[in-house]
Amino acid sequence: MAKQAVLCLQCKYYYITWDKSFPYGCKAMGFKGALMPCLYVRQVSGTRCLSFADKIKGE
């Protein structure tokens, strides 16, 4: 599971929120939560995140 959490850090849709209860967010799916978005998606759907998009260096 830790390997999947790294995917969020490399995704252009991932962001950190100001909400202490829900610190991790995904702009592609429009939610924030206590878990990294890719872990939450895996937990709920049983599949990997299909919204992943690599960050482009310099953006």
In short:
The chain is an alpha+beta fold and 59 residues long.
Descriptive overview:
It comes from Lucifera butyrica. There is one protein chain. Helix content is 29%, strand content 15%. The mean pLDDT is 85. The chain has one domain (2-45). It has a 3-stranded antiparallel sheet with strand order 1-2-3, with no helix packed on it. The chain contains 2 helices and 3 strands, in the order αβββα. It has 59 residues and is an alpha+beta fold. Strand 2 (24-26) and strand 3 (31-33) form a beta hairpin.
Fill in the keyword field for this structure.
59 residues; 3-stranded antiparallel beta sheet; 2 helices; 15% strand; globular
Form type? globular
Percent of sequence in beta strands: 15-25%
* Arrangement of strands in the largest sheet: 1-2-3
Overall structural domain count = 1
Protein name: Uracil-DNA glycosylase
Organism: Lucifera butyrica
Strand and helix map with partners:
Elements: H1 2-9, E1 14-16, E2 24-26, E3 31-33, H2 37-45
Antiparallel strand pairs: 1-2, 2-3
Protein name: Uracil-DNA glycosylase
Organism: Lucifera butyrica
